[in-house]
Amino acid sequence: MFYRPQDGHGLPHNPFNALITPRPIGWISTRDGQGRDNLSPYSFFNGAAYDPPQVMFSSTGSKPDVGDTKDNVANIRETGVFCVNVCSVAHKDAMNASSATLPHGTDEFEYAGLDKVDCELIACSRVANAPASLECKMTQIIRIEGPSNFVVMGEVLGIHMRDDCIVDGKFDATKYIPLSRMGYRDYAAVREVFEMARPDD
């Protein structure tokens, strides 16, 4: 099968995001200028560079009570900071609850029943028992094709890692089982890990 997205695919469900899998989930927390916390998952998320460490996520769609985007991007525009919380399988239900479309200013930490703590370097909350959290300073917000599509770039200023996830000097993802996004409404638990040396190692 071949199709051009502009012409449509003819299938009952859009296959596009089922082709780019598995995708890490950026569980992004922000705080607006009035001190109200927000937490939402983004599956268009990844690391972008090592030195300095940088991350990116894309936000698609908008809310009538925010304007041309959603709460987190609006908050980042206002404050210039955000936190990426690593999402484990143990957090799957809370992560899903935090994806609900709620009125602007609603605290998704409370809505999803999550404990939160203040970040160290930025004015923002983070998920208290997340395997890791990355405190970030926004460096760019890039508008891309489409009415409400934005890519947010951030430099990582500080990193929290749960002590039980550090084994023999390495951050061990098998200690918390990462949750990743597949296509449609499907998710995957990353339980099998193997090592391969690069040819030039």
Write a structural description.
- The protein has helices at residues 16-19, 71-79, 92-97, 108-111; strands at residues 23-24, 26-31, 37-42, 45-49, 54-59, 81-86, 116-118, 125-127, 132-143, 150-161, 166-167, 170-171, 179-181, 187-189.
- It is mainly β and 201 residues long.
- The chain has one domain: Roll (Pnp Oxidase, Chain A).
- The strands form 4 sheets. It has a 7-stranded antiparallel β-sheet, covered by helices on one side. A 3-stranded antiparallel β-sheet has the order 1-13-14, with no helix packed on it. A two-stranded antiparallel sheet has the order 7-8.
- A hairpin with a 5-residue loop joins strand 13 and strand 14.
- The longest helix has 9 residues, at 71-79.
- The termini are far apart.
- InterPro entries: Flavin_Rdtase-like_dom, Split_barrel_FMN-bd.
- Residues 18-173 form the Flavin reductase like domain.
Task: Summarize the structure in short.
The chain is mainly beta and 201 residues long.
Order of helices and strands: HEEEEEHEHHEEEEEEEE
Number of domains: 1
Structural class assignment: mainly beta
Distance between the termini: 39 Å
Shape, per Cα inertia axes: globular
CATH topology: Pnp Oxidase, Chain A
Physical arrangement of strands within the biggest beta sheet = 3-2-6-9-10-5-4
The CATH architecture assignment turns out to be: Roll
Beta strand count:
14
* Percentage of β-strand residues: 35-45%
- The CATH superfamily title: Electron Transport, Fmn-binding Protein, Chain A
What is the alpha-carbon Rg in Å? 17 Å
- Estimated helix fraction: 10-25%
Low-pLDDT parts are none
CATH class: Mainly Beta
Main sheet summary = 7 strands, antiparallel
User: How many helices in DSSP terms?
Assistant: 4
Could you tell me the mean pLDDT?
96
Protein name: NADH-FMN oxidoreductase RutF, flavin reductase (DIM6/NTAB) family
GO molecular function: FMN binding; oxidoreductase activity, acting on the CH-NH group of donors, NAD or NADP as acceptor
Organism: Sulfitobacter brevis
